[in-house]
Amino acid sequence: MSPVIPIQSAGSKGCTDVIPLVERGQREVFCGLTGIIWLHRKIQDAFFLVVGSRTCAHLIQSAAGVMIFAEPRFGTAIIDERDLAGLADANTELDRVVNQLLARRPEIKLLFLVGSCPSEVIKLDLSRAASRLSAQHSPAVRVLNYSGSGIETTFTQGEDACLASMVPEMPSSPAHAEQELVIVGTLADVVEDQFVRILNHMGIERVRFFPPRRAQDQVPIGAHTRLLLAQPFLGDTARLLQARGARLLVAPFPLGIEGTTHWLQSAATAFGVTPERFQAAVAAPMARAAASLARAKLHLDGKRIFFFPDSQLEIPLARFLSRELGMKLLEVGTPYLHRQHMAMELAMLPEGTFLSEGQDVEKQLDRCRALHPDLVVCGLGLANPLEAQGMTTKWAIELVFTPIQGYDQAGDLAELFTRPLTRRMRLAA
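Request: output the structure for the sequence above.
Response:
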């Protein structure tokens, strides 16, 4: 088993004090509606009703890859010309669609009205609509709303907005409740189960996840709640949970051996787990992860990588690829840099790493072409043009859709980066 690398090397602060290049220009990114694709799979008795255009409907349908005979847990109430021209009462039409939906799908216990660019343009007050519909269908169905608009946001903020809308309705934990760990951020069920086994092995028995698998399993929040963020794009959700009295545990994100170990160590410290018991719980999965990463390192060691801003996962991924797989970081772009949540990640980056926040896509493309990296992580809109120019790309959105957190997923995460390089080699042979 490899020892855990210290978060800071002696005499080095990593990139803690680095001032990133801040760009505010044209961006290439999906809208927040995309978050529905993983959220609807997670919360099994919820339904996501997008109030938007046919373009919104096509985006969700094609991105989710849902077959025509499937019964998904999302849909679109389409705003048409009559709504835009004021010839129809949009609220009356929305009530009709919701009533039809709930009559057809009685298993729905939580309904999200998801705003879009079109609904915001016509100033449709979905907050008031949600309150009205929730009162009408309570207690069988709760109705909440959030914005999935792509105006001035990146696509992962759709999850942040969704979870933030759920926080006000979360029950308060009793004043004398036992300390409880709440892991915040959508994770695959298999990843949740792995984390629970490890934490239980340490002796941490009271573990909950937010969002829960079923909307009715509401997580109580209060002064005895300890929060661990599983995703780096949940700034608003974390702030609202802290305002309810919960305490956020400082940790890197659980990507790779190092990130996962420090993440679990943060929980272990908060719950008084002894070093011996901690090592006993993590030793076997760490050894498995180290074996899987050794194979990937043969392909990635020394390769140069460039990150375009897309998902807000860029800094934790860069830390993992640099420290555990030996990749060279040319530029690490991120849509937003939350210094509090990224403090430990920044400290673990190689000193002198070039960071950029936001995007001016033409300028960033020029920098990327000039450096000609071995691998480019970017959105779908940039991948094909860059491939046509001879570069090897990795779709950033795949890193959100794929289970990549934890020890047993470390090898799968590394393979997402080795795959495009091996494909390029085979095509060139």
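The two ends are 36 Å apart (CA to CA).
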